[in-house]
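User: quick one, sequence for these tokens?
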């Protein structure tokens, strides 16, 4: 039964590309390590026909890294010259710590920049490049099939320190969950992104934040603050993992493993993990994450992906402009939809939203 569901998910991934490519209208334009650095030499020609040379440094989100890497590779094949491009993925927050002082040209991000990051940051333009879902995963032998946000809160929220599956189910039930199929025993082994990851922040924002703050205000429990005075909205015993591939391997090897990564990473993992459906509270239906359900917004744990470009550097570095032009132009569709290899990637923007991104870049 599990194999059948996995085949269904992977078939939906491949089928959805055709659907989304059609929806995107005129937008013509193998698994990778999340923390590896790479470089290539290539170039473009300016409008005057002069060869462009220079370097481009890209850092940030491990989720967006495969897109930027794929674009780099096809840029290298499509043009000639001497542009060195480096791409790595230490995480969205870690990337902003390098980008905002001006140490990198582009920051890949799986969340929007925070106000406190904006306060002391170089001039930039925010460019939305794709949609992604956050896949919730358990070990393949786990009997769970579909979870609600209340279930996810009970497993990973600030009231769930050191809990067993039975304790998580009890908390979820007290919140109104009617989910069945919980494991009968075992202490939950949470293996998920580190605090430097935008996926970590997005999961908290989409799944945990509203419930945690409401429960804290009700007096159901006392929120704990971190060293910066901010409320801790996740398990206080949480220890993140910066490498998405290690997260998948950890869940595969732990009978009580539970975690989350970007959907494309989970889809590329095949049967190594079990991807859970998530309950849509409005319809009462369980929604399987796929390119189609992420694109139409029906999957409850979806988000936007971005690149942030230093506009001061763009004004003085033709190589940077050339790379971003290609990123949003001839390299776009392939870079997004084939980020992990043929037919395995992210959701390209629909034409109207892509036009907004293009306009933002043109108006920088």
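Assistant:
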């Amino acid at each position: 039964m599990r194999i059948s569901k996995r085949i269904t998910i992977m078939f939906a991934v491949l089928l959805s590309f055709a659907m989304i490519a059609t929806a995107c209208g005129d937008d013509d334009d193998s698994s990778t390590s999340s923390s590896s650095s790479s470089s290539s030499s290539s170039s473009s020609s300016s409008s005057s026909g002069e060869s462009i040379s220079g370097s481009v440094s890209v850092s940030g989100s491990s989720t967006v890294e495969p897109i930027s890497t794929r674009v780099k590779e096809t840029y290298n094949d499509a043009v000639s010259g001497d542009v060195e491009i480096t791409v790595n993925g230490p995480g969205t927050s870690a990337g902003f710590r390098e980008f905002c002082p001006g140490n990198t040209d582009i920051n890949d991000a799986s969340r929007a920049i925070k106000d406190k990051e904006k306060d002391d940051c170089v001039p930039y333009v925010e460019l939305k490049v794709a949609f992604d879902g956050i896949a919730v995963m358990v070990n393949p032998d786990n009997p769970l099939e579909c979870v609600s946000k209340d279930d996810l809160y009970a497993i990973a929220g600030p009231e769930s320190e050191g809990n067993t599956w039975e304790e998580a189910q009890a908390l979820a039930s007290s919140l109104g969950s009617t989910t069945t199929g919980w494991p009968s025993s075992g202490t939950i082994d949470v293996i998920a992104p580190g605090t430097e990851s935008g996926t970590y922040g997005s999961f908290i924002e989409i799944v945990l934040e509203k419930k945690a703050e409401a429960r804290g205000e009700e007096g159901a429990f006392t929120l704990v603050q971190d060293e910066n005075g901010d409320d801790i909205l996740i398990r206080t015993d949480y220890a993140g993992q910066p490498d998405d591939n290690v997260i998948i391997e950890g869940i595969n090897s732990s009978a009580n493993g539970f975690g989350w990564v970007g959907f494309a990473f989970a889809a590329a993992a095949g049967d190594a993990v079990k991807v859970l459906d998530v309950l849509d509270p409005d319809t009462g239906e369980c929604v399987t994450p796929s390119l189609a359900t992420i694109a139409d917004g029906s999957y409850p744990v979806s988000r936007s992906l971005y690149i942030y470009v230093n506009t001061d550097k763009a004004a003085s570095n033709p190589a940077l402009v050339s790379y971003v032009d290609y990123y949003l132009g001839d390299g776009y569709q392939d870079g997004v939809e084939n980020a992990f290899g043929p037919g395995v990637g992210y959701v390209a923007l629909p034409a109207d939203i892509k036009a907004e991104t293009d306009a933002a870049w043109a108006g920088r």
